[in-house]
C-alpha cells in the first residue's frame, strides 16, 4: 500500500490549505447568518477545482480519491460548511465519472459543464423522513414521469446542501408505476440556482452546526429534465449508489469530518499552550490531564486518518466493490467516533473560554456534532462492518423494525 501523495495531489492539497486560510476569515459570518458562502465557491472555481473528482481522460485533475480526501480534509479546517457543501459537487461529478452504466459521451458532456463552463453541481439523495440507521429509507420517493422529450419530477428531496448555489442537481427518482421500490433513474437536473420552473426551495435549515451548507428541502412540481440528462437506470438503488459508490456516497463526508477533528486538535493545542492559569509559570498544556486528553485526541485522529487513507488507496487501486465498501464503512465508523470524542475532550480541556462565540473552537465543535450521525451513522456503520467481518449472510438478517406492507426494500445494505 502506497499512501504517499504524488506531486499533482500535493499541489492540490496545498491549494486547499491556502483556500482554507482565506475561508476561515469568513466562516464565523456565514455561520452566524447561515448564509451561502458564494464567494468561496467562486474561488474554488477560479482555482480550477471544479474538476477535482474528474479523471484526466475527461479533462479533470485526476488526483483520485486519495488526493481528493487529502484536499477536503484541509479545506474543512478553514470552513467546514464550505467543505461539506462542496463535497456534493465532488460527489456528483465523481459518482457520474466512475459509473459503468453512464456512457462516455455523457461523461464528456458533464465534465465539460463542470470544467469548461464552470457549472456547480450538487448531489441530492436524502428523502423526507429518511433515517441514517435504515438504508431502505433512502430509496427514492421522488417520482419521475415520462413525457415527450424527457421526464417531469414530482415530490421532495431533503437535506439538499448547496442547492441554491448550484446550476445542476444530481439525484435519483423512482419511475412512475414501477412496483420495485429500488427501481431508480439517475438524473442531472438543470436547477439554475433554485430558479428552474417547478422548483420550490423550503428554507428549513436553521441548525446547530454546519449552518452555511444551506441544506434545505426542495420540492419538485413538474420540473422538466430532458432525455439527454437522464444518466442511467437501476433496479437496485442501494447497491448501485451506496455499495458501488461508497467513496463518493459517504467517504467524502467522512473526510470532511476528519478535517474538522484535525482543526479542533490544532486549535486546542495552540490555545492550551498559550494560556497561563493564575499563579502558575507554565501554560495549561503542561497539566497532566491536558496532556492525556490531547494525547488521546491525537491518537484517535491518527488512527482515523490511516483508516481513511487505506480506504481511499483501496478505492483508487481496486475500484468499487464489497471490499472497498468494507474499507469505507470502517473508516466512517472510526472517524465518526474519533471526531465526537475529539469535540468532547477539547471542550473539557479548553473550558468555558473555548466556548465563547468569538472563539473558532465553538463553531468547530458545533460543526463536529453531526460527525457520528452523518449517514451511515456510527451504529449503522458498525453494524455493516460487523456483518462483513463475521461473513454473515445479509439475507438472514431480520428487519430491525416492523415495516409497512408496501415497504419491501432490504433491511441491510449488502
Automatic annotation (TrEMBL):
Its EC number is 1.14.14.21. InterPro entries: Acyl-CoA_DH_C (IPR013107), Acyl-CoA_Oxase/DH_mid-dom (IPR006091), Acyl-CoA_Oxase/DH_mid-dom_sf (IPR046373), AcylCo_DH-like_C (IPR036250), AcylCoA_DH/ox_N (IPR013786), AcylCoA_DH/ox_N_sf (IPR037069), AcylCoA_DH/oxidase_NM_dom_sf (IPR009100). One of its GO terms (molecular function) is oxidoreductase activity. The chain crosses the membrane at residues 248-268. It comes from the Bacteria. Residues 122-221 form the Acyl-CoA oxidase/dehydrogenase middle domain. The keyword Nucleotide-binding applies. Pathway: Sulfur metabolism; dibenzothiophene degradation. Residues 252-371 form the Acyl-CoA dehydrogenase C-terminal domain. Residues 18-98 form the Acyl-CoA dehydrogenase/oxidase N-terminal domain. Keywords: Flavoprotein, FMN, Membrane, Monooxygenase, Nucleotide-binding, Oxidoreductase, Transmembrane, Transmembrane helix. It catalyses: dibenzothiophene + 2 FMNH2 + 2 O2 = dibenzothiophene 5,5-dioxide + 2 FMN + 2 H2O + 2 H(+); dibenzothiophene + FMNH2 + O2 = dibenzothiophene 5-oxide + FMN + H2O + H(+); dibenzothiophene 5-oxide + FMNH2 + O2 = dibenzothiophene 5,5-dioxide + FMN + H2O + H(+). It is found in: Cytoplasm. It holds the Pfam family Acyl-CoA_dh_M. PANTHER family: ACYL-COA DEHYDROGENASE, ISOVALERYL-COA DEHYDROGENASE, MITOCHONDRIAL-RELATED. Belongs to the DszC flavin monooxygenase family. This is Dibenzothiophene monooxygenase.
